[in-house]
Design brief:
By secondary structure, this protein is mainly α. It has a single domain, classed as Orthogonal Bundle (Arp2/3 complex 21 kDa subunit ARPC3), CATH 1.10.1760. It is about 80% helix and about 5% strand. The chain has a two-stranded antiparallel ribbon. The longest helix has 29 residues.
């Protein structure tokens, strides 16, 4: 449990730190480096679910404290921290509640089912709050689309890795 919590918190902090570093992905639009890291958080959170809701919410709280410290000591812009905090609290809460309702389903169905809600919600909230007024509407839509695809891909790979390593 502590390993998954640590990976989750570290991934959130790295994602925030690199949230404004964009790379173009053909067909998918622009994706921040942070997105490629953040996709890991969805599966790490799902791994902690086996211990119940309380550790999941504690993990989210620890990440939130880390984000404030990160902004204070590493100079991550407050618009990124604010966007991340709001997106994480809302999307992770939605994910947690969906995942808990799917506990009787196989691992991959729980992961995919909860991610179908949380990944688009996270991507839309974060990018609109962080980048509205920074990018034109077309670019913002391309970023959101690219991030949804990238988060599903990295989350799926992490879920497959968990399946493979836990057999």
């Amino acid at each position: 449990m502590y390993r998954s919590i640590s990976i989750y918190v570290i991934a959130v902090l790295i994602a925030n730190y690199t949230a404004t570093w964009f790379i173009p992905l053909p067909i998918f639009g622009m994706v921040s480096v942070g997105t490629l890291v953040f996709g890991i958080t969805f599966t790490q959170r799902d791994r902690v679910h086996r211990f119940g809701r309380k550790p999941v919410y504690l993990m989210i709280f620890i990440a939130a404290i880390g984000m404030v410290l990160e902004s204070t000591f590493l100079g991550v812009e407050w618009r990124i921290i604010t966007a991340s905090f709001i997106a994480i609290v809302l999307s992770e809460t939605a994910d947690t509640e969906v995942y808990q309702k799917l506990l009787n389903k196989p691992w991959m169905k729980r992961v995919i089912g909860s991610n179908l809600i949380s990944i688009p919600l996270d991507s839309i909230l974060f990018n609109i709050i962080a980048f509205y007024g920074v990018f034109q509407a077309g670019m913002l839509i391309a970023i959101i689309f690219g991030e949804i695809v990238a988060k599903f891909a990295t989350g799926f790979i992490a879920a497959l890795w968990r399946t493979k390593t836990n057999k």
